[in-house]
Design a protein that fits this description.
6 helices, transmembrane helix, single chain, membrane, alpha+beta, transmembrane, two-stranded antiparallel sheet
Length: 298
């Protein structure tokens, strides 16, 4: 197990959280999820890296554009005997409604932290992946993740049977190939943070994943913009703030997140703020995206 006093892991925010059953996960998966239990609530706590691990949350889904990414913790096994029949989702008017779990359709991805170099990630994903150590002279790369997702929409129940294979396929190419009927893809994500605690993630995927089923979120605004000569999409999305990662428990509030999505040189890029960091403005997101793209061209 990584020493959490010295090692900074990816924290998830602005995110939908789901409760599922009987997941067999490695210890490394736990390192993907961090709690909001710090005694100090100031933004500087992120920069100080003084964070505790969540011991309750089982599955976290964060929104990168309209896609959904699952981060799985071993603690999900605590819920092994729980059968979810009803879940809460958001309707088009930002109201919380209860629906049959079997009626929920997902396009999930599972993530895990990675120690692979950019060169190794590029070889594995079949695209050029380069995460600069610093961005815009103020943001530092503090963590990297790998993920595998499926483009084919699947039911909540089918996800329940596939989640272990999807998780294992992150580090097992043979299992990844066995998921071909579900149109799997690979992604890498870099987490950037400045001294003020502003934190955002940049995800790079080896497929065009810009078109997702948005039934689990509400798109409050949608704008087509340009990053230099590159077309991009700027979205403001609402989602339920699930309590303790449990989709079956009525959320206490509705939150929103801004995201920037663009396609460049055979890859899909998504940028969004994370871990309760203030939503990125369109101007800031474009600035970070341009700097990141310039680095890819080096």
């Amino acid at each position: 197990m990584v020493n959490m006093d010295k090692d900074f892991d990816f924290y998830i925010q602005k995110e939908i959280q789901y409760c599922v059953k009987d997941i067999k996960s490695s210890e490394e998966m736990l390192e993907c999820i961090f709690s909001n239990l710090d005694e100090k609530k100031s933004t500087s706590r992120l920069f100080n890296l003084n964070l505790a691990k969540i011991s309750i949350v089982t599955v976290v889904i964060f929104i990168l554009s309209s896609g959904l990414i699952f981060t799985i913790s071993p603690d999900t096994r605590v819920m092994a005997m729980e059968i979810i029949k009803k879940v809460f989702v958001i309707d088009k008017n930002d109201n919380l409604v209860e629906k049959n779990a079997e009626d929920i359709i997902l396009q999930p991805a599972v993530c895990d932290r990675t120690n692979l170099s950019d060169e190794e990630l590029s070889l594995k994903m079949g695209i050029n992946v380069h995460f600069p150590k610093t961005l815009c002279e103020e943001f530092s790369l503090v963590n990297k993740l790998e993920s595998v997702g499926v483009l084919s929409p699947i039911s909540y129940n089918l996800w329940d049977t596939l989640k272990n294979d999807i998780q294992q396929s992150i580090h097992n190419e043979q299992i990844f190939k066995g998921l071909q009927k579900y149109m799997p893809y690979r992604s890498a994500c870099g987490v950037y943070q400045n001294s003020s605690g502003i934190t955002f993630g940049i995800s790079v995927s080896n497929k065009d994943i810009s078109q997702f089923d948005r039934s689990l979120v509400n798109v409050n605004s949608h704008e087509e913009i340009n990053i230099g000569n590159t077309q991009a999409i700027w979205d403001d999305v609402s989602y339920p703030d699930y309590t303790e990662g449990n989709m079956a428990k009525k959320p206490t509030s509705i939150k929103s997140v801004t995201t920037l999505t663009f396609y460049f040189n055979g890859a899909t890029y998504m940028i969004t703020s994370i871990y309760d960091s203030k939503n990125l403005s369109k101007e800031s997101a474009i600035k970070y995206a341009q700097a990141f793209l310039d680095y890819q061209k080096l």
